[in-house]
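Bug report (template v2)

What were you trying to do?
Predict the complex of my protein with adenosine-5'-triphosphate.

What happened?
Run completed; filing so the output is reviewed.

Input:
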Amino acid sequence: MKIIILSSLKGGVGKTAISIHLALELRKRHNVVFLDLDPQASATDFLLRDTDIDQLDRRGALQLLTEAADPRELIWETGFGIDCIPSTLHLHRAGIEMAGDPGAMLRIAKEVRCLEYDYAIVDSPPGLSYEFRQAINMADIVLSPMTYDRWAVQGVGMLIDEVAKARKSGGSQRLLVVPSIVSGSEDEKLRQDMDGEVEFSRASILRKGVVKTALGRGRPLPSGSDSEEQFHRLSKELS
Ligand SMILES: Nc1ncnc2c1ncn2[C@@H]1O[C@H](COP(=O)(O)OP(=O)(O)OP(=O)(O)O)[C@@H](O)[C@H]1O
Ligand SMILES: [Mg+2]
């Protein structure tokens, strides 16, 4: 099992879009479970769009983080060939409830790793939170989308510090930055400006209407599109 976390302190950088489309690419060749650790639940909205919210509330990431529930009992089948441990807005409670239980982080990471899948893809919320730290803590690869804007450098600096902290607690996370929602020229500039400071993925996810539309409509990317090819290349790099 390889655990890949989508993570960024800055919001709106493409974490959810990349986590979903990366998971859909990987499932063409592997067994994939998706863990939604973002209380905004955007990925759950994509994967389990027609499922009743009250039902999702009873069996999902909140029970994993706060009730020591067996993750195998929290898994839902989706219509996309991947399984999912969903989120709902109630996941916001997790941080408050878990403040007094630091050992839970290690336990949860271990249990997720024991699930019988090739990959776990985890979407996480922006900003420093319990769910954010839980995600980083369990990762093999921290995949951080980076857009071309003036907060990007500061954001990645803070993420480097967070990953370093997790490594000190015994983890061996690899931090990989993926240029996201960029034009071709922004992609080039980003890579030049940050040269030597971070490890970049070879693939970039360019700004394309099809990615936005697919996420909004809860659909996979059009087969044969440039964006699908970019996610294919990214998935090959990670597998
Ligand atoms: N490659 C892309 N090209 C064009 N639009 C994109 C691309 N990736 C994401 N978007 C759009 O940008 C917005 C932010 O993307 P997304 O929700 O994936 O970011 P996020 O980092 O998960 O945000 P949040 O921090 O709120 O969870 C969405 O409207 C999405 O449809
Ligand atoms: Mg998101």
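What did the reviewer find?
The chain has a mean pLDDT of 94. The chain has one domain: 2-238.
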